[in-house]
Amino acid sequence: MVLKQFEYLSIKEKAVLGRYVVNGQIDGFLEKFKDKYEVKTLGVSVLGLPIRSITLGSGPIKVLMWSQMHGNESTTTKAVLDLINYLDSDLPKAETVRKNCSITIIPILNPDGAVVYTRVNANAVDLNRDAQQRTQSESRALRSAFDELQPDYCFNLHDQRTIFNVGDTSKPATISFLAPAHDEIRSVSPARSLSMKLIVAMNTMLQKQIPGQIGRYDDAFNADCVGDTFQMTGTPTVLFEAGHHPDDYDRERTREYIFQALITALNMIVVEAVLELNESDYFLIPENQKRYYDILIRNAHIIVPSLKKGDAIGILYVETLNNKTIDFVPKIEKIGSLDSYYGHKTYNCLIDSDLKSLEKYSALTDLFSAF
User: Fold this and answer.
1) pLDDT for the residue 165
2) How far is CA 269 from the centre of its chain?
3) How large is the greatest C-alpha to C-alpha distance in the chain, in angstroms?
4) What does the domain layout of the chain look like in residue ranges?
5) Hey, which residues does 131 pair with through a beta bridge?
6) Which whole number is the average pLDDT over 171-187?
7) What's the CA gap between 121 and 114, in Å, rounded?
8) I want to staple 230 with a disulfide (CB 3.0 to 4.6 A). Which of 10, 26, 83, 237 is the partner?
């Protein structure tokens, strides 16, 4: 099931936009639901900020999902706010999901990292490498929620960088999925099989909207990762990665695709249609590669004479927090032939119109002056 555009816009949480999403916005959002659904504080962050959850629905199928485990990965947080609005609505199938599922959502697991827009928490720990030791209060809050709920499914929600393309194509990986491994040999357990089938369902839906822009993450096993750990317990777990869509650095388009994927997965769970899917189709989704730059400048020797003829410049944006907004600051990442790489924006200095376009980027001119 896919919501039509006007239906999605009717439930999209328009008060939360852009890349900088913090607890203050989430607290205000959850406040309006506290008398209708269970809103809890699961624990506090290292710096004492609350880690909150909301549970919607009263059905026997229990789903746990969490976002912003990495504080600078906010796209899926926006998507789960849209999901909460959807589940609270009278739109088709929302009521069916509520009757059949109990869905617990943690919008921001790492509120300290969100405030300063960093991947790690206030102790500089990557929470997605703390699943076994659980040295951090945020890790313990998530595991306590998992142990208390004993969910039937887990959704682990993240953002991915703009560097990823799909397989050997020039398509950006706008959405990527992973059915985490549960052992070193990456065998397919019953739980992992269900994870794969859910991904097949979401991929089928998304291919109709963004064909060729769905990738698959490498499934190397790491017991310290939360997804692998939960998969080891026999709980089907799916990793979602929100990536880049052309000209969508605020990731509002990607937000919608993640939302559509979430409701697709929930609907498949409710009607048990997921059981009919073929897990082998999961492996037909191409693996991600890292072949993208935000800006790729070919034949850059024309504007930087010290470079070799034919050299290209690959530039990546550094996401920089500036007064509660995110600036995208260009940084030269690599110089060389870069023949097998792509650019979200590509300029060829042999073409006059491209040269004129480049002249408008004062930040790039400053970069080139270093040569």
Assistant:
1) 98
2) 21
3) 67
4) 5-289, 292-368
5) none
6) 97
7) 8
8) 237
